[in-house]
Specification:
Mean pLDDT: 85
CATH topology: Umud Fragment, subunit A
Largest sheet: 8 strands, antiparallel
CATH superfamily: Umud Fragment, subunit A
Structural class: alpha+beta
CATH class: Mainly Beta
Distance between the termini: 129 Å
Length: 203
């Protein structure tokens, strides 16, 4: 009598709890993590560079009308005067000498050694009359000032409604933060801030 053998199927072993991903998946995850960290590092470096090179300020008040308006946001180039000289006609941002926690924005009018005179509604630099198409109205005040070493003379474009060098004196150069270059908000007012050179009239 021949024997009959039975084939008993072997059931697969149940999966182990806590099984880990395959080596291929681990490599892919590490690659993605590495790319994420690299992108974050690059973004951090770019933000640091931008913050070192520029500042953002809000125009507060009407002292720079009609050139700049209350509430506008402006980009300031902190490095503008590291590679170039201060220039008459630039709009600059600076720490207010009598309150370092306040920042002002005004137009640079006089450089060290300049003689500034306002008379009969007209600005003179070193006895030369200066055309100022950017001011709100001719100044109602009058006076004469001489700019000392390491100082500049600044005025708001809204001459009759501005706290500036004609009433509080010269601005030390080391208080200058940088040159205002772009209005970026509100979007409707966005523009590169135009520069008016006063050099020709002041030679």
């Amino acid at each position: 009598m021949s024997g009959v053998s039975e084939h008993v199927p072997v059931e697969p072993a149940p999966p182990e709890w806590g099984a880990t991903a395959s080596p291929k998946n681990e490599v892919g995850a590490l690659h993605l993590l590495g790319e994420l960290l690299q992108n974050l590092l690059i973004a951090g470096i770019l933000i640091l560079i931008v913050n070192l090179a520029t500042a953002r300020i809000r125009v507060d008040g009407s002292s720079m009308e009609p050139s700049l308006h209350d509430g506008e946001l402006v980009v300031v180039n902190r490095l503008a005067y590291r590679w170039s000289d201060l220039a008459r006609g630039d709009i600059i941002v600076f720490n207010f000498p009598f309150d370092p926690d306040r920042r002002f924005i005004k137009r640079l009018i006089g450089l060290p050694g300049d003689r500034i005179m306002v008379q009969d509604g007209r600005l003179y630099i070193n006895n030369a009359p200066v055309e100022e198409p950017y001011i709100a109205a001719p100044p109602l005040y009058r006076g004469t000032w001489t700019v000392g070493p390491d100082e500049v003379f600044v005025l708001g474009d809204n001459r009759n409604n501005s706290s500036d060098s004609q009433n509080w004196g010269m601005l030390p150069i080391n208080e200058i933060i940088g040159k205002a270059v772009v209005v970026y908000w509100p979007v409707a007012d966005a523009e590169v801030i135009p520069h008016y050179s006063l050099a020709a009239a002041a030679q």
